[in-house]
Specification:
Elements lengths: L1 H10 L8 E5 L4 H12 L3 E8 L5 H17 L3 E5 L2 H8 L3 H20 L3 E3 L4 H14 L12 E2 L2 E2 L7 H11 L15 H16 L3 H26 L4 E3 L10 H8 L6 H9 L5 E3 L4 E6 L2 E6 L7 E3 L3 E4 L4 E8 L9 E5 L7 E5 L5 E2 L8 E2 H7 L4 H6 L1 E4 L5 E4 L3 E2 L12 E8 L1
Parallel strand pairs: 1-2, 1-4, 2-3, 4-6
Antiparallel strand pairs: 5-6, 7-10, 8-9, 9-10, 11-15, 12-13, 13-21, 14-21, 15-18, 16-17, 18-19, 19-20
């Protein structure tokens, strides 16, 4: 078995014999075999054991076994005790998730404290295959079919190349005892159902099912690496041109990879790709994605905006990012879209700054007739996102004097008879 593990360690550059590594030691067959292999072949290792106090005397039995084993091997053992049930209740997570979080947080802290290069855990090939099968049942993308990876940050898995049967045979040959977690023998959680019921049935169909699935996951992992290059090229922006994906043949998977960090799922991706332009879909994480003329745009969900009353000239803070100022100036006509110059005599205070509402209209500068703002913004090829954020300034007579940043109203425009202008500026703080 060591020849397999040695090749695997070398292939994925998992361990260096000059570095210190931690072995996560539960006392079960897998972790005992991992500790023995690394110790026997010259690796500098410490062991780490967690007592989660979930199985009464059996939990204490496991800890005592690990203490005795490490004494026999001359391996330094680090131990931690956790009130797992209290943690689970406090953080509103399952017992299984609580144990996982506690375990890996402590492992990482211990790694830093003693200067270890990595934390070796004893997942084996059967564990990886079980993960693939569970992901298939639950529904998954390509990454979910690549199984457990040999390296995840500081977590290292040198035994993924061998089966549980090989591990047990190795321990039998060594005459090495180990403990058995009784909960692993109960088909009361999904993984144990796969391990105790589904997997034996698959082996009847093909005794080499585990090897075949593992080989497939390795091939898929290679394919994932190729896709990662494409994913990296589209992940730096909140705008994705769908035409850029045509060279890859299929866009759905890449769009999913682009959107998943914002909380969108596969069904939502298919929904947005099948939609007409202008469709907005919201994620559970507070983001919206818009399909707009052959591209996708993501931005945070629209925050509420309370209309602000402007009773007189001055500077006003609209929110933490924006301010609005209005003041009298000598006559001039602004060419800056963020500055409006209006005839003071035709603008009546108080003013109101608000978002565009349905039915709003104005007489755009240079036009004789009125126009709905919705039509005006469409003519300007504004996206749905831009339209819903758009602000207007309304005077006391209900005249929309400024479609902010875009148009002023002809009725308040500067003319040859203007003696003074109201200069309005909306800008970042």
């Amino acid at each position: 078995m060591w020849s397999k593990v040695k090749r695997y360690i070398k292939k994925y550059n998992l361990l260096n014999s000059n570095d210190l590594h931690i072995v996560a030691l539960s006392g079960g067959a897998d972790s005992v075999a991992l500790l023995l292999l690394l110790k026997e072949h010259g690796f500098n290792v410490h062991a780490a054991h967690c007592n989660f106090h979930l199985r009464g005397d059996e939990s204490d039995r496991d800890e005592a076994f690990c203490v005795e084993l490490c004494q026999q091997l001359g391996v330094e053992l680090h131990r931690a005790h956790f009130d797992t049930r209290e943690y689970a209740e406090l953080h509103k997570v399952s017992i299984e998730m609580a144990a996982r979080e506690l375990r890996y947080k402590w492992f990482e802290q211990l790694r830093q404290d003693i200067g270890a290069a990595g934390i070796c855990v004893a997942h084996h090939r059967d564990d990886s295959v079980e993960t693939v099968l569970l992901n298939l049942v639950r529904g998954t993308g390509l990454r979910g079919l690549t199984g457990i990876q040999p390296r995840n940050g500081s977590i290292l898995r040198p035994l993924l190349c061998v089966s549980r049967a090989e591990i047990e045979a190795f321990l039998a040959e060594k005459g090495q005892k180990y403990v058995t977690d009784s909960t692993n023998l109960e088909a009361d959680v999904q993984r144990n159902v796969v391990r105790l019921e589904v997997f034996p049935l698959l082996r009847k169909l093909n005794p080499a099912v585990a090897e075949n699935i593992q080989r497939t996951t390795e091939n898929l992992a290679e394919a994932q690496q190729v896709l990662n290059v494409a994913i990296a090229s589209i992940n730096s922006s909140n705008i994705l041109n769908l035409s850029d994906l045509e060279k890859y043949g299929s866009s759905e998977y890449l769009v999913f990879e682009w959107l998943k960090k914002y909380g969108f799922n596969g069904d939502q991706v298919r929904q947005i790709l099948d939609a007409e332009t202008g469709k907005v879909v919201s994620s559970a994480m507070g983001y919206d994605v818009l399909k707009d003329r052959g591209r996708l745009i993501v931005e945070p969900a629209l925050q509420s905006f309370k209309p602000m009353r402007i009773p007189e000239e001055g500077t006003y803070i609209l929110d933490e990012k924006t301010r609005f100022s209005v003041r009298k100036k000598s006559v001039y006509v602004s060419k800056d879209p963020h500055i409006a110059t209006l005839d003071t005599a035709t603008v009546q205070f108080p003013l109101t700054i608000r978002r565009v509402e349905e039915g709003d209209w104005m007489q755009p500068y240079g036009m004789k007739g009125k126009k709905l703002l919705s039509d005006l913004m469409t003519d300007l090829k504004m996206t749905v996102f831009e339209k819903r954020r758009q602000l207007v300034v309304v005077d006391n007579q209900g005249v929309i004097v400024w479609l902010v940043g875009l148009r002023t109203d002809q009725r308040v425009a500067v003319t040859d008879q203007t003696n003074e202008v109201q200069e309005m500026i909306l800008c970042d703080i």
